[in-house]
Amino acid sequence: MEKIITQCSSCEAKFKLDAEKLGKKIRCPKCKEVFVVQDVEATAKPEPVKAAPIKKPEPPKAIPIKKPEPPKTAPTPRPTAKAPSAPPVERQATAPVKPAVVPLKDRPRPLKVKDFFETQFMRFLPEKAEGVNAHISYDITGEDGGQWTLIVKNGTCEIRPGADPTAKSHATMTSKTYLKLAQGKLDGRVAFMLGKIRIKGDKTSIATVRECFEVPEV
C-alpha cells in the first residue's frame, strides 16, 4: 500500500502513514494532539510554473514613401476669334406724338371753360384772319376757370394754357361770362359796357379776333 509522510500540526513530528488516511483526523502518537493528515511532501513540492513563451518583436514594417507628383499646370487657353461687332444703329429722333383732341360735340356735358379753349383752333377761319395781329392773355375766374393765351397772326392761330405777361391785351372775366360769350349768347361789347369784362392794353384786337372763329354748335 502507498505510504505518505505527514506531520503533526502541534509538535511538527513527522511519520509515515497509509495513503488511505489522507485527509482524516488522527491523534499524534507523540504529543497526543489531533490533526488532519496531509501529505507533507506533496504540499512541499510546488508544481513548476511553466513560463509563457516570449514572442520576439516583429521588425517594424517599412512605410512606402510616395514621391510627390509634379504640380498640374492648367492648359493654356486657345485664343478665340471674336465675332465682328455690328455697327451702332443710329437712332432717329422722333417728334413727340400729341394726343388727339376730342371735338367739342363729343365731350361730356356740361361743357367747361377748358373745353372751348382746347377746341377753339378747330373753329378757326384763316381767311378771316388775314392782317389780324392779336396776342391776348385770358384770366377766367370762378368755377372751372383758368388762364389761357391766344395768338392770331398772319392767318395762323395758336392757343396754349397759361397766362402770358408779354401779351398786348389782358382780359379778365368769370367762367359764366366766358361760357355765354363762347356760345354766342352774349355780345362782347355789351358785356364790356356792363362791366362783366375787364380789359387792359389793346381793346381793338379783342373785338377783331371774334370774327376769326366760328360760333360752336353745342
UniProtKB/TrEMBL annotation:
Domain of life according to the entry: Bacteria
Stretches assigned to the SCP2 domain: 126-202
Family annotation (Pfam families): SCP2 (PF02036), Zn_ribbon_5 (PF13719)
SUPFAM superfamilies tied to this protein: SCP-like
Region span, Disordered: 46-102
Domain Zinc finger/thioredoxin putative: 4-37
Lineage: Bacteria, Candidatus Moduliflexota, Candidatus Vecturitrichia, Candidatus Vecturitrichales, Candidatus Vecturitrichaceae
Name this protein carries in UniProt: SCP2 domain-containing protein
Annotated InterPro entries: SCP2_sterol-bd_dom, SCP2_sterol-bd_dom_sf, Znf/thioredoxin_put
Coiled coil residues, start to end: none
